[in-house]
Every structure is written in structure tokens, then in C-alpha cells.
Amino acid sequence: MEAECYGRHEFETYPQTYEIVTQFIQDYNQQRIHGSISGRT
């Protein structure tokens, strides 16, 4: 998470940080391609 999310953004406020990290977690868990399950999201 540090390399893929924190390293790509410069956060200025806590609400901004919360929104970006929440979106990253949602995308990571639901949208990205999962290699361990034959490329399904």
C-alpha cells in the first residue's frame, strides 16, 4: 500500500487522505485484476 498509494500522492489534509486511501482500498479489493484467481476482479 505504501508504494502503490502513499508514494504516488502528496496529502495535504486528513479528509483528502481518507478519501484517496479509501478509494485505493476499494479499487484494490474490487476492481483490479487478481492473478491468483485467473484474472477475475
Descriptive notes:
The chain has 41 residues and is mainly alpha-helical. The protein has a domain at 1-27. It is 41% helix and 0% strand. It is built from one helix and no strands. The two termini are 18 Å apart. The mean pLDDT is 81. It comes from Paenibacillus agricola.
Summary, kept brief:
The protein is mainly alpha-helical and 41 residues long. The protein has one helix and no strands. The two termini are 18 Å apart.
Output mean pLDDT.
Answer: 81
Number of helices: 1
**Overall spatial form:** elongated
Number of strands: 0
- Could you tell me how far the N terminus lies from the C terminus, measured between alpha carbons in angstroms? 18 Å
- Class by SSE composition: mainly alpha
Strand content of the residues, in percent? under 5%
Order of helices and strands: H
> Runs with pLDDT <50, length 5+?
none
Helix content range = 40-55%
Radius of gyration: 12 Å
Biggest pleated-sheet summary: none
Protein name: Transposase
Organism: Paenibacillus agricola
Domain Integrase catalytic: 2-41
